[in-house]
Description:
The structure is a homodimer. Chain A is built from three helices and six strands. Chain A is α+β, with helices and mostly antiparallel strands. Chain A has one domain (about 1-110): S-adenosylmethionine decarboxylase. A six-stranded antiparallel β-sheet of chain A has the order 2-3-4-5-1-6. The longest helix of chain A is centred in the N-terminal third of the chain and has 15 residues, at about 20-35. At the A-B interface, strand 1, strand 2, strand 3, strand 4 and strand 5 of A face strand 1, strand 2, strand 3, strand 4 and strand 5 of B.
Amino acid sequence: MHIGLHSTWDVYDCDRDKLSYVPYISEVLHAIVDDLGLGKVKDAFKQFEPVGVTGFILLEESHISIHTWPEHGYAAVDVFSCKPFDVVAVENKLKQLLGAENVVTRNLERGEVPNPISS
Amino acid sequence: MHIGLHSTWDVYDCDRDKLSYVPYISEVLHAIVDDLGLGKVKDAFKQFEPVGVTGFILLEESHISIHTWPEHGYAAVDVFSCKPFDVVAVENKLKQLLGAENVVTRNLERGEVPNPISS
Lengths: 119, 119
């Protein structure tokens, strides 16, 4: 048994404007967490100059993060949760909200323990 | 070329007391970031009851997170950075600071782009 799933999405060929500024990227991250029904503890975002965003929401179930490179049309997203979640739904949401054409998804099972109890 | 490296450490057989409370886990996370010479933007931690911690530090170069399950002697750690960092040094530091005997390290190259520019 595993403690949780840690998924990463490499999101390519995004609409560069959508990757550029904190308010929209914050909306994207919060929308994903709302869709997944996970619990928010605290968030933090940073605006890079002239463009680019890094952000994080600490979750009751672990975390979600996003880091964007508008100059490459690229965003890196991950979710780690001890509660099961819909990996494909996140991929589709990222495509829709970032205008992305190409997403590479990877799934890591984390924490092999005899009898996991969600915290 | 890749935008950055995303490494995960599954840390087993830890000293359970060390995993239990925010102050020590915060020290551990800050010590790793200091050792790696990465830039801190903001941190956040949450204490679970009776024990267990979840936390992250948003970095100039991306992020570091930790989630602990003292009941399993287990901690999940990850670092994503667009600046190269010493993966083995983090593994050794985690063993030392968490009294861990067994660490499984995985490395994901993130963001395949033609000509990465660090943000």
